[in-house]
Amino acid sequence: MSQTAAVPQKHGRFPYSAIVDRPPLRWPHGARVAVWVIPNIEHFLFDRPGAAIVPATTAFVPDVLNYSWRDYGVRVGIWRLMEVMERHGIRGTAALNADVVRHYPRILEAGKALGWEWMGHGTNNSTMINAQSEEEERHLVTTVLDTITEATGTRPRGWLSPGLSETHRTLDLLAEAGVGYVANWVNDEQPYPMHVRNGSMLSLPYSAEINDYAAFIERGQTGEDFARTIRDQFDGLYEDGAVTGRVMAIALHPFLIGHPHRMRAFDSALAHITARQEVWLATGSEIADWYVQHRQAR
């Protein structure tokens, strides 16, 4: 059998489900929207390309311009983001590259003091999950989880792959390693169970749109444009949440959102969200636990 013929044409991970046909989902204290904020805290290798603000130098090795632009996030941007999120009472669910543990332990120290949750986010953001053998991928997953556990004292319960990348077996290996929820699939506004080889897995709503990378790099938005998008998204979900609960994910990268000209607008967007009463500011694990206990257990 050829390699092409062996590639599955269907994922087999979940059946189709129209949100209008599901029983109403209720969040704690009658909240209409569960909001979780996901800072992506990442390390990039110096000898290869990555996210770029200036495409002209991406073929250079090293690409000092774009590497140092990304490096701003862990040196400066994350601290501004932590300050603003704390001001609004929002605990982050950080998607954490394991290499951050070794290179930027000061960030983990601050995040632990703020009560942040840590999700596995691969080894670094220069290594996607796609070309590894099964044993290589299993080793990658286990090493990432063990590294974060040793550094934070808590084993990650969630996972977001670098670039939302997966092989056909990633979910099975994550479940095998004890991960309970994944944020790679951006196809819903509510959690839903996924089929895995052994154990269980929940998909938690993440966003490729309410995402500062898509906003600033791909769509060319300003900070105020992005803040307006966040407000509009929240208002729509809040209205829909009167019928059945929704999840709003806000995906952030400190090297982007962390600049002053963007952070002031983002601060105003968080103020808009937290001014409403029927909102649940939650971490990924809190959303997953509530769903399993009050919906999936039925």
Describe this entry's structure for a reader:
With 298 residues, the protein is α/β, with parallel strands linked by helices. Strands 1, 2, 3, 8 and 9 form a 5-stranded parallel β-sheet that branches. A 4-stranded mixed β-sheet has the order 4-5-7-6. It is globular, with a radius of gyration of 19 Å.
Offer a quick outline of the entry.
It contains eleven helices and nine strands. It is an alpha/beta fold.
Termini separation comes to 43 Å
Overall average pLDDT: 96
Helix percentage: 40-55%
Sheet having the most strands: 5 strands, parallel
User: Pairing-aware structural class of the strands and helices?
Assistant: alpha/beta
Q: Got a strand count?
A: 9
Taken as a percent bin, the fraction of beta residues is: 5-15%
Radius of gyration: 19 Å
Tally of individual helices: 11
Shape: globular
What is the assembly state of the chains in this entry? single chain
Indicate the low-confidence ranges by residue numbers.
none
| SSE string, helices as H and strands as E | HEHEHHEHEHEEEHHEHHEH
